[in-house]
């Protein structure tokens, strides 16, 4: 293997949305031994830069589910935004249906102020009705997300700067029926690709955008064959790269159907599953519950 691409949330990040020392150490070992590491995430590039600081990690980054690619030095290699009229029609529908949503752009994240306030109130109600560690962790993570310097509250989606490149629109809901309604609607549209990256969201992007397509572009720019590439993830927005990479690895905390399409299954994210997989690739040993032998 020459390149190892990893997702962030539910994969490289632990339960506190941090890169654990064990994972950082595995990445540093890989880079020292000549195995390139890349991060492939639904988050925007600025998020990845901030998260990577703690572990002293520097890698090429596929962000916004494949809509942008930055090299190791932060240079933008590629981007493919949603057509603006299409993006506006997506947000108009979400607005009319009452969804909370965010637009990922080259200027940061944008969310309508009224939806933001409604979401905060809904989270407080949820915490009162369903107390517990999982609920508290989810709400803490979301509120921390709102405090980021690149998070902008606007009066309306029409207030997003006209020259901003809109890469991704993420809708969020705590209610299964509402989630399924939105997922079904956008799955039927041809002008956007709809992906799911968590139990509570669905995301719309350019039809040609995917982590798999971005990984193929990145490897080509580095002169690396996809056969010499490993990819690891835990959710549905990772499927394209798990299927296109030479070795697709699912996290132990991934849904059963994600694990089914992978060639190997590693440990869970809070068990340092990415670190385990990297060490296995470097040592030439089977990964976790590997279903296929690891190639040379």
Feature tags:
single chain, 296 residues, alpha/beta, 8-stranded mixed beta sheet, 6-stranded mixed beta sheet, 11 helices, 14 strands, 40% helix, globular, disordered C terminus
Task: Write up this protein.
The chain has 296 residues and is α/β, with parallel strands linked by helices. The protein has 11 helices and 14 strands. The strands form 2 sheets. Strands 5-4-3-2-1-12-13-14 form an 8-stranded mixed beta sheet, sandwiched between helices. Strand 3 and strand 4 form a beta hairpin. The radius of gyration is 19 Å and the shape is globular. The termini are close together. The C terminus is likely disordered.
Short description:
The protein is of the alpha/beta class and 296 residues long.
SSE topology sketch:
Layout: E1 3-6, H1 8-12, H2 21-32, E2 36-40, H3 45-53, E3 61-63, E4 68-70, E5 76-79, H4 84-97, E6 100-105, E7 108-112, H5 113-129, H6 133-146, E8 151-154, E9 166-172, H7 176-187, E10 193-195, E11 201-205, H8 211-222, E12 229-233, H9 239-244, E13 247-250, H10 256-261, E14 264-265, H11 273-283
Parallel strand pairs: 1-2, 1-12, 2-3, 7-8, 12-13, 13-14
Antiparallel strand pairs: 3-4, 4-5, 6-7, 6-9, 9-11, 10-11
Helix pairs in contact: 2-11, 5-6
């Amino acid at each position: 293997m020459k390149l190892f691409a990893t997702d962030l949330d539910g994969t490289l990040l632990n339960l506190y949305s941090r890169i654990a020392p064990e994972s950082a150490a595995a990445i540093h070992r890989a880079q020292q031994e000549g195995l390139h590491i890349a991060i492939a995430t639904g988050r925007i590039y600025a998020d990845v830069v901030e998260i990577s600081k703690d572990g002293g990690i520097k890698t090429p980054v596929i962000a916004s589910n494949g809509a942008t690619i930055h090299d190791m030095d932060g240079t933008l290699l590629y981007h493919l935004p949603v057509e603006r009229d299409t993006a506006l029609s997506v947000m108009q529908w979400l607005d009319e249906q009452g969804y909370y949503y965010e637009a990922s752009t080259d200027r940061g994240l944008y969310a309508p102020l009224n939806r933001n306030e409604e979401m905060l109130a809904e989270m407080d109600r949820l915490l009162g009705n369903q107390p517990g560690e999982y609920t508290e962790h989810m709400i803490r993570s979301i509120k921390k997300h709102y405090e980021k310097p690149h998070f902008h509250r606007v009066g309306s989606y029409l207030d997003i700067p006209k020259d901003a490149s809109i890469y991704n629109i993420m809708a969020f809901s705590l209610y299964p029926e509402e989630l399924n309604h939105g997922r079904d609607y956008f799955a039927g549209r041809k002008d956007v690709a709809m992906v799911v990256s968590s139990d509570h969201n669905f995301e719309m992007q350019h039809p040609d955008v995917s982590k798999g397509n971005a990984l193929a572009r990145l490897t080509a720019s580095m002169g690396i064959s996809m056969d010499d590439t490993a990819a690891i993830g835990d959710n549905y927005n990772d499927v394209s790269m798990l299927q296109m990479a030479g070795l697709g690895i699912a996290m132990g905390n991934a849904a059963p159907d994600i694990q089914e399409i992978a060639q190997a299954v590693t440990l869970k994210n809070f068990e340092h599953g990415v670190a385990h997989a990297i060490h296995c690739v470097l040592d030439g040993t089977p990964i976790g519950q590997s279903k296929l032998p690891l190639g040379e």
